[in-house]
Amino acid sequence: MRHEASETDPILESGDDRKIPVVDFSKVRSTGRQESKATMLFLVVCCLEISDILFAVDSVSAIVAAVNDLFLAYTSAVFAMLGLRATFFIIDVLVDLFALLKYGVAIVLCFVGVKLIIGKWYHVSPAITCVVLFGAIGGSMLASVIQEKLEDKMEGKSPEIAERIAKIKNSPFNSPSAAVKTV
Predict the structure, then answer these.
(1) Residue ranges of domains in the chain
(2) How far is CA 43 from CA 36, 38, 40, 49, 92, in A?
(3) Which of 20, 65, 84, 159 has its CA 20 to 30 A from that of 48?
């Protein structure tokens, strides 16, 4: 007995012994109720845009107080916002290249947060700030390169070393090349 499809049933189209359900939306009746759904990407984009607006408002007021030329102040704030977005994507690529860079970025963010908190009571000199920033980022990149070279050098030496390497590869501090080699 053959089933007759009604207007709201999905129509089955066959092709190469597969049945794929297809819904004809022109025949589906609307109930008048609409649902809107968002993915996590929508939340991320909202957070990025809110942080862009907060950064713009904060940096424009700080620059206007320091610089007398308004054109220079507003254009520098715009370029700073554009640079933040580009810097995010550059760091995202670099984190894939250097396994420990995320820890360096975390150190930088913690330092900046502490500096903002204590800024009212204690002034951190720009020289110390530069040393901490370059030291954290450069040190994490250097540590990533050293870790990768040590993993390459130690592979295949002895069973004890192979066992240690297996433990290291399961740790959260392994490099991307180690994950590729084990797969």
Answers:
(1) 98-183
(2) 14, 8, 5, 10, 19
(3) 65
Give CA–CA dist 10/21, Å, rounded: 6
pLDDT value of residue 1: 46
Put simply, whether the predicted model's pTM sits higher than 0.90 gets the answer no
Give the pLDDT score at 135.
96
* pLDDT score of 183: 46
Q: How far is CA 78 from CA 23, 56, 72, 75, 81, in A?
A: 47, 7, 10, 5, 5
- Please write down the HEC assignment for all residues of the chain: CCCCCCCCCCEEEEECCEEEEECCCCCCCCCCCCCCCCCHHHHHHHHHHHHHHHHHHHHHHHHHHHCCCHHHHHHHHHHHHHHHHHHHHHHHHHHHHCCCHHHHHHHHHHHHHHHHHHCCCCCCCHHHHHHHHHHHHHHHHHHHHHHHHHHHHHCCCCHHHHHHHHHHHCCCCCCHHHHHHHC
* Dist CA 168 CA 155 (whole Å): 12
Mean pLDDT, each 10-residue run in order, the chain (183 residues): 49 57 67 75 85 74 75 77 74 82 90 88 90 94 90 69 65 53 49
